[in-house]
């Protein structure tokens, strides 16, 4: 007697035509030309109060460093104030089509990385704010960064507009292409070294080709041994992390002995527990290393002040190092606004797991050491940390030294990369239908980018005044 195997009926899935209809219907909710409008919250919060609230959860002595870095230029301010732009984006109507957002897709959060297979890939980098939300928020963040950097670099109004329009066109065209592809091909798509070369080579002069080649060579040089020379030294025959206060402070210099031993034990516990979130091959590889030293490290602009450690591990010997970054994850600044925009509650989860999920969904480059864990302090306070390999072959473009042609090429590469990242988690068919094949949306975003660049300059001026009058403290030149 045979027993019939019961197979549950598959969940209903819309057809490509129905998905395209959803994108066209979104135009009725938010016509594409209306994406040009800058809609600010009716009761927009004071910048200083926002920054003071954020400082309450940060390492106190690092908060002035964060403020000092944000003061250096309007672009540095934009990088350090995603919370302000998140609230501003949340005040405006949206298309209603969700994807996994990077959450902070400005120009300097793209770069060259080495994948687990040792291929060089151009990809997104920072996912601290990543979560589901309206796809256009990432596009607008990228576009605004182009306008802000263009102003700082002395581009004309027309040059800045051309840069933004061409970047958004590239996003539009790439999304349309991904909408026609098989999902497996979308998931496998990546901008590797050869493809970056093929895109840029016919567009640039011999001089520019040499500069691109120099950036690739720099990325190749950042292999696992590069941080060894930059960040380590040998004292009394022992390999350790080199002090560079306040940016890098070894734990031995940071805390008295008893507190240091407690912190070291806590980090060892975290690493032992976090390995459960790795794939089996990642766990096997991690088990070949032992903990040698750790230090607090200041990173970036917007996340300066959050708890961030670098951990030095040793494999076979001192010539076989591994650096891991252990970084605190706080709630995404987009969270309260994205929940309203998508009209659905966001999942309650470990904040570090949220960051790791975003990176795994959006980034084509694998990191075998990417995982998360929650730590409970002696006072019962919970803090979430994600772990990843530190600086594994990365080259980030110096966008504040680019000329208009260089920005055009770089922006197009970023636009393609963002479209590919969104297509992995979202619905490229619906987004492509909303975008269409004309310049209505790119031109609208160019208008928005200039309007928000004006607002960003006003907010940057507010920061300078707050420091000058003593409302905020800042440490310059660090």
Summarize the structure.
The chain has helices spanning 16-29, 47-55, 63-71, 74-80, 82-90, 135-152, 157-179, 183-188, 193-200, 206-221, 226-231, 251-254, 257-274, 280-286, 335-342, 351-362, 404-425, 428-435, 440-468, and strands spanning 98-101, 110-114, 120-124, 131-134, 191-192, 232-235, 238-241, 248-250, 290-297, 308-314, 321-329, 371-376, 382-389. The protein has 478 residues and is an alpha+beta fold. The chain has 2 domains: 45-221 and 400-468, no CATH class; 226-389, no CATH class.
Euclidean distance between termini CA atoms: 77 Å
- What percent of the residues sit in helical stretches (DSSP H or I)? 40-55%
Average of per-residue pLDDT values = 87
Rg: 23 Å
The low-pLDDT segments are none
- What is the quaternary state of this protein? single chain
Sheet with the most strands: spatial strand order: 8-9-10-11-13-12
Question: Which structural category do the helix and sheet elements fall into?
Answer: alpha+beta
Q: What fraction of the residues are assigned to beta strands by DSSP?
A: 5-15%
DSSP, total strands: 13
> Total helix count?
19
């Amino acid at each position: 007697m045979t027993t019939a195997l019961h197979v549950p009926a598959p969940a209903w899935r819309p057809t490509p035509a129905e998905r395209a209809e959803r994108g066209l219907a979104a135009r009725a909710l938010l016509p594409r030309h209306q994406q040009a409008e800058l809609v600010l919250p009716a009761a927009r919060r004071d910048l200083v109060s926002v920054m003071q609230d954020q400082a309450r959860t940060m390492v106190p002595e690092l908060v002035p460093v964060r403020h000092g870095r944000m003061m250096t230029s309007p672009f540095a301010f934009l990088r350090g104030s995603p919370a302000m732009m998140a609230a501003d984006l949340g005040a405006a109507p949206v298309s209603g089509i969700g994807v996994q957002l990077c959450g902070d897709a400005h120009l300097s959060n793209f770069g060259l990385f080495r994948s687990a297979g040792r291929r060089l890939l151009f990809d997104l980098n920072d996912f601290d704010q990543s979560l589901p939300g309206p796809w256009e928020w990432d596009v607008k963040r990228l576009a605004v960064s182009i306008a802000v950097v263009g102003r700082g670099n002395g581009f004309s109004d027309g040059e800045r507009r051309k840069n933004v329009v061409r970047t958004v066109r590239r996003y539009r065209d790439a999304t349309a292409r991904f909408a026609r592809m098989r999902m497996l091909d979308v998931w496998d798509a990546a901008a590797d070294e050869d493809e970056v070369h093929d895109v840029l080579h016919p567009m640039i002069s011999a001089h520019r080709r040499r500069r691109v080649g120099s950036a690739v060579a720099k990325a190749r040089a950042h292999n696992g041994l590069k941080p060894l020379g930059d960040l380590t030294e040998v004292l009394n025959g022992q390999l350790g992390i080199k002090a560079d206060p306040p940016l890098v402070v070894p734990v031995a210099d940071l805390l008295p002995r008893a507190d240091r031993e407690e912190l070291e034990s806590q980090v060892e516990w975290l690493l032992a527990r976090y390995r459960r979130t790795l794939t089996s091959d990642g766990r096997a590889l991690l088990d070949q290393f032992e903990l040698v030293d750790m230090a607090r490290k200041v990173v970036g602009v917007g996340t300066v002040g959050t708890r961030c450690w670098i951990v030095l591990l040793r494999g076979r010997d001192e010539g076989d190092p591994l650096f891991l970054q252990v970084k605190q994850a706080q709630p995404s600044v987009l969270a309260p606004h994205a929940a309203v925009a998508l009209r659905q509650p966001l999942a309650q989860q470990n904040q570090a797991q949220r960051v790791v999920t975003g990176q795994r969904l959006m980034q084509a480059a694998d990191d075998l050491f990417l995982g998360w864990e929650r730590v409970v302090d002696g006072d019962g306070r919970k803090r979430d940390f994600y772990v990843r390999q530190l600086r594994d072959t990365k080259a980030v473009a110096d966008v504040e030294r680019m000329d208009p042609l260089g920005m055009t090429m770089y922006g197009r590469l970023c636009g393609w990369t963002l479209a590919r990242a969104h297509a992995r988690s979202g619905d490229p068919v619906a987004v492509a239908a909303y975008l269409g094949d004309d310049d209505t949306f790119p031109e609208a975003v160019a208008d928005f980018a200039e309007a928000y660049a004006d607002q960003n300059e006003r907010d940057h001026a507010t920061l300078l005044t707050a420091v000058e009058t003593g409302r905020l403290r800042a440490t310059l030149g660090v």
